[in-house]
Amino acid sequence: MKKVLVMGGSYFIGRALVNRLLKKGYNVFILNRGSRPVWDGRIQNLICDRDDSEKLQRVLRPYRFDYVVDVSGLNGQQARNLCDALPSDTLKRFVFLSSSAVYDVEHLAIPFKETDALAENRYWTFYGKDKMDAESVYREHFADGSTKLIILRPPYVYGEGNYAQRESFVFDHLQKRLPILLPTSHFRLQFIYVKDLAEIVCRLLERSTLSHLVYNVGNREAVSCMDWVACCAKAAGLPAVCYSYDYLQDGRTVREFFPFYDYDNVLDVSRIHEICPKETDFIKGLANSYQWYLENRETIVFKEQVARNEEQIRRKLGLNQ
C-alpha cells in the first residue's frame, strides 16, 4: 500500500480526497490540528499546527511517504515549513492545491491559461499573493530533486461539505423564499465539483508521465451568476426569485450581498481534460450539494452582516412589501 499524506484532510476538499484515496486502497495519513474527529478507522491522523515549524519536523520526520497532497497550504511560510520537515528520499509526487486567484486577472483575457502572468489583484489581494508565494517555494524546493511537483489551480469548488457560503447561500434563500439580489454585470463563474477534483488528484498521482507542471482544473463551461442561481434552483426543485441590483450606484461592494467577486473567473481547462475528460453533470452535483445542505443546515452559520445588507437593499427597492 502506497503511503500518501494529505495536509488538511478533515473537511470539504481534503475530506473528499481522503475518501477517494481510501477507496483506491492507499495508506492515508492526514495532518491537521486535530479539531475534528477522524471519521474512518483506516485514516492515520497526525496532529500538529503546520505553522509550528519545529513540531512539524518532529511529527513528520519518522515517516516516509510516496505522495503528499497539500490542500491546506496558504502561504510561502507554510510551504517552507513543510519542505523543511518532509523527508523527500521516497517522495515520488507532491501536489499543491493553489488557486485561480493567482492570475493577473485585471490585465488578462479570458479564459486564463496556465502560462498567463501571475500577480496580486484587487479582488483577491493577499490571498492570491500568498498562494503565488507558496507556489514559488515549492517550485524552488523540488526543482532539482526526483520528486515531481504538480500545481493545481481551481476556480470555485462546490459540493458536499462546502464551508464557503455559496451554493448554500442560494439554497437557504430558496428555502426561506427570499429574493436573491444579482449584480447587474452578470459576470461569469466557473466551478469544479469537489469529487471531480479529488478524482483528478488521484489520476495525477497514478499517471506514469505528465507533460506539465501546472494544471487549471474546472468544468469545461462557465455560467453567468444568473444561470448559476437558476441551476441551484433546478437542483433543489424550488423556484428562485431574482432582482438585478446596481450596487455601484449605491456605493456598495458586491460581496455585501452576493458571494462572489464581480469579474469573469474563467480558466482554460484543456490541459487537464486531456487527462481527465469526465466531469459530473452540474445539476447532479448541485443536487448532491443541496442534499448535504438539508442535512446540515442547522450547523451552517450565515453571515449576519450580509443578511442585514440584504434587508436594507430590499427595503430600498421596495421588495419587502
Give an overview in words.
Helix content is 36%, strand content 16%. With 321 residues, it is an alpha/beta fold. The strands form four sheets. A seven-stranded parallel beta sheet has the order 3-2-1-4-5-6-11, with helices on both faces. Strands 7-10 form a two-stranded parallel sheet. Helix 1 links the parallel strand 1 and strand 2 (27-32). The radius of gyration is 20 Å and the shape is globular.
Brief write-up:
By secondary structure, the chain is of the alpha/beta class. Helix content is 36%, strand content 16%.
**Which residues sit in consecutive blocks of at least 5 with pLDDT less than 50?**
none
Strand order of the largest sheet: 3-2-1-4-5-6-11
Q: Class by helix and strand content?
A: alpha/beta
Q: In percent terms, what proportion of residues is strand?
A: 15-25%
User: How far is the N terminus from the C terminus?
Assistant: 63 Å
Shape: globular
SSE diagram, text form:
Layout: E1 3-7, H1 13-23, E2 27-32, E3 44-47, H2 53-60, E4 67-70, H3 76-85, E5 93-97, H4 126-141, E6 148-153, E7 156-158, H5 167-176, E8 180-183, E9 188-189, E10 191-193, H6 194-206, E11 214-216, E12 223-224, H7 225-236, E13 242-245, H8 270-275, H9 282-296, H10 304-317
Parallel strand pairs: 1-2, 1-4, 2-3, 4-5, 5-6, 6-11, 7-10, 8-13
Antiparallel strand pairs: 9-12
Q: Which properties best describe this structure?
A:
alpha/beta; two-stranded parallel sheet; 7-stranded parallel β-sheet; 321 residues; 13 strands
